[in-house]
Write a structure and sequence with these properties.
Layout: H1 6-46
Length: 52
């Protein structure tokens, strides 16, 4: 079992929270990009081509 002094628990939780926030931001950015690409593809495929 790992034991931590009480003073180090706050520093550890700050590091974990910071890492989690950064990772969540990376995932959200990827999701937004994928959503924009999906919308662009949908508009491109549903818009009638002037050549037809």
């Amino acid at each position: 079992m790992i034991t931590l002094p009480l003073a180090e628990i706050a520093a550890l939780s700050t590091q974990v929270a910071t890492h989690g926030a950064i990772r969540a931001t990376e995932i959200a950015g990827d999701d937004i990009f994928e959503t924009l690409i999906a919308i662009a593809i949908l508009v491109y495929e549903t818009y009638p081509s002037p050549l037809q």
